[in-house]
Amino acid sequence: MRVVHIKNLPFSGDRVKWAQEITFDRDLPADFKEGDFFENKIWNARLTLRNCRILKQHRARGLLVTTPEPVVIEDNYFRTAGTAILIEGDTDHWFESGANQQVIIRNNIFEDCLTSGSETGGKWEWGEAIITVTPSHRPTSVTSEPYHRNIMITNNLITTFDLPLVRARSVRGLVFAHNTIRKSSTFEPFAWQKASFWLDGCREVRIQQNQYDSRYRGDTITCEHMRASDLTVQDERPFHIHGDL
Hints:
By secondary structure, this protein is mainly β. The protein has no helices and 22 strands. It has a 7-stranded parallel sheet with strand order 3-6-9-12-15-18-21, with no helix packed on it. It has a 7-stranded parallel sheet with strand order 5-8-11-14-17-20-22, with no helix packed on it.
């Protein structure tokens, strides 16, 4: 489906001050309705981020990545105030991009990230774990189809003063494997999320073959809107699984 004409229209709403009339070269799908979203699938960027230093230069996240094209983040050093890597999918405010299809996060160093992260759950914009995946799409049941796909977090060195490693919502094919987690005492723990992993409406999740410093006390996985078959844990650490599995 291609756009053949765009006409700007005056409009005044709560947040939108202009509108467009878009003409396509064919009819829209029969089930397309008001409130649905679409994106330009041929105008998206691929991303390869390698050998960079992402530091505490501001209080927000280190890196915001949302694109349906392939993403590779490898061999970088993160020391961020908020979450180190945020994967969004905003369909209720910024309308930045659709769903990710392939994200590889490997061979990076994460050191004392999340020093300005969410303390009470109300400061969500700075992140709730070292790696945060929070699309606007919110699962409502164990059958909700995930928004993002294929996020692989492997072979990273994570040094943290707190507990949260990953917070992920609505991902199919989430892998956290072969990472090394070390405990630091640089700052006092304060994050409201007390689980190492907080998963909401994720499918085909694998947490396996990671190594944990004995001083790192995280031993909980919290799950919402998931079945037991959605999660596979084959780790050296015996995790307690909380939630509605």
